[in-house]
């Protein structure tokens, strides 16, 4: 009986404490067949089920080029994430997916890429960044702007050096307000974008972060000359089934979990009229 | 009475005493009434008053907290306003209560007067700012049913029979929560039924989930429910919810001499106690 | 279903920390024998027990629930047990009305020095629940999985 | 479409004989509670009169609450255990034409575009549907305004028409129906055929309220109309749970068992996110979502309105909100 809601069992092989309330879990599928057949694009998500607690959607934050394990970064906010943070190495969880449409890789080929991330928003972008670094020649210049409330909220600190060292790649870190022994930039992400003024010629912006950051980043990007279809973002909504059936993430005729979560700004704009 | 009601509403809106009046208007099918919200003077002639005005409009007051609102209230509706005031959910000065003397309302499901009206002891209104009297002094048409008669019938059953009776009733509960949404005294921002940390009982519409929901709902209304009968009227599965509420009401009246919605100053039932409360069942 | 004779009832007990829990402690210290069917949950006061605890225990398979607190008058928080008494009198009568065997939900006052009374209460309670039989309401698969 | 006359006794006898290997389900009159579909021990308990059941037949296909799988946890290891699907064959009799059309819409939701919901489809495969044409539509019915009719047999295996109190006219629609009812009753002669066809036409006119569903609602998405219309709404689940086409559900994990149960966009916290943000915070957005999903969004995905005009949400709404009123009074704004 093909039960679409039956998850694959996966074992937690590594847990990295990124910040006070964010952990990155590395998962290995228990059975061999699932490990091979699980193929995904950066930007897709999985339904994570902690048995006895519930299920929640998390984006896969490592690049598909670095298979077979998958990594998910989880911020402690609700019932499932609370229980997830209690688990430790060796525990098994349920993984269902991959769901969602993922980033449009063809449109990004040989373009300049501007990654704009806020707080935990770096998780889906990290999958795309590492994917682009592994296939570096398909893309032109890469600029990464990663902001957080405080330096303690910055995730994936270990990777910053690698990103800085990569070919033709710039990394701009920023925190909302100044702290002692903080060397990089200070200020909210939209302000930083106005300072570094990335070129909009032949380039695509990928924005991911809390709604308030997206709201204030969009006009700045438009002012910098980015056209609407070339601004890509991921939408956040409550999701339960991940298959476009349970009705929660329904906006207009689209279901964010099935037709999204990645949309370009032109699509998002006409959501408001539906 | 309808004329008097409309004039009063017009007057209130004209001199800005209230921003909005919650009342009844004819529903499109031409017979039943339905709730309406009047904020313009010209619409006041939509207002009606007759035996089809069964809704307890005080349920909507919680959505307009902090704004000056006029509400039309029968005797049972105004008792629920008393309980809401007693629990500091509403500010008396924000409310303009138009009391309407009622001779019993019709529950459109069955013919004839609603069950609650048959045993309604008095139609005088405990709290109002303006009273619309019943012009024709018709005799109170309501036979004085013994209000606890259906409860005594169930209490007389043997334990196993009662269990089967209620399991049969709760089996058809579809957990639509209409009983909670229509009750003026159910105003929790996040109901225990919706909480997930911990989840108190199963969300499934099976026997254990339905049993827990109905017991919890009744317990949370203990000493508060004023028997406006809306929960039973709204329930699509036809579960006799009033027979649960009134069982608790009967126990409270007999054992503790406490009457819900009697006056605004008394403490809520579970928030006070008497040293002489009965404890014979406690070992 | 479990057969009757070898079946051991599962009873949840909410004990108030200052009196009944100490009483149960005393019963243990003085090596009093009483059936092990009671799972004790310590609460600051009998007034802390929420009717939802009782309903959730009964629904998840407990065959009986006991709430035990200080005698009225010597509650550490001075009025906790008064509220509890009023609250659970109503709950008990409601559960009985809805068809739950009254023996399944009981309350007792056990003070810190009444170790012996605690043992007696638990013995009587276990005996009564054995007569009442396994709970029909619990979340055993027969009811939970039943198709409507 | 062979048409036959069959006596009521004969029909009941046939149903009782089938009760050995079929589960018989049909509407039953629960005295002051209304009519409900129940599992019947004998056909005599059946109620085949004019009254409409409160709950639609949907509850036998998309179950109000069902377990999807179990998870066993022993010595530190989780293991998943699938539950076997019920395979007992069933006959559901007394299904109204609007409910049968509701099932056709749900078939598209649960069995098309690459999504196969085995729980729903298994229920569909193991069930034979015997429809009952509506002799007396009531004031809430408006199926004719949504390409439906009180006498059509789409989505049914057999349809029966009440003829007086003691007889039914039976039309076999599919070969599944032929299997069980093929041998019964006498074929209609010519005159009876005409009178039956005439009767059918007459019944179609009985559905009085005609509403016009606007082509597109997008232009009035931001209109204050929705605030006005949804003021009396209580956010309860009656209209969504009793609707034969509403299919939103909730997935919950309870004691390591995955439960699927009904859910509705009317509930306040249907779309509340973990951060507490709610994209549909007030009744206005939620009620507008219900109307738009039925008459706009579903049409864009599946080409048909997600409403069959059965009138249940009108009959059972505790505050008398009438979706026909809402849809017909939509302000048509040309400029937007």
Task: Explain this structure.
The complex is a heterotetramer of chains A (274), B (283), C (148) and D (336). By secondary structure, chain A is of the alpha/beta class. In chain A, 26% of the residues lie in helices and 31% in strands. In chain A, the strands form three sheets. A seven-stranded mixed beta sheet of chain A has the order 10-9-8-7-11-12-15, with helices on both faces. In chain A, strands 4-3-6-1-2-5 form a six-stranded antiparallel beta sheet. In chain A, strands 13-14 form a two-stranded antiparallel ribbon. Chain A starts with 7 loop residues before the first strand and ends in a 5-residue tail after the last helix. In chain B, strands 2-1-3-4-5 form a five-stranded mixed beta sheet. By secondary structure, chain B is an alpha/beta fold. Chain B starts with a helix and ends in a 27-residue tail after the last helix. The relative contact order of chain B is 0.12. Chain C contains five helices and four strands, in the order E-H-E-H-E-H-E-H-H. In chain C, helix 1 packs across helix 4. Residues 140-148 of chain C have low confidence and may be disordered. Chain C has a four-stranded parallel beta sheet with strand order 2-1-3-4. The two termini of chain C are 20 Å apart. The longest helix of chain C has 18 residues, at 80-97. By secondary structure, chain D is α+β, with helices and mostly antiparallel strands. In chain D, a hairpin with a 5-residue loop joins strand 2 (23-29) and strand 3. Chain D is globular, with a radius of gyration of 22 Å. The model of chain D has no long low-confidence stretch (mean pLDDT 90). Chains in contact: A-B, A-D, B-C, B-D, C-D. Chains A and D meet through strand 4 and strand 6 of A and strand 4, strand 5, strand 11 and helix 8 of D.
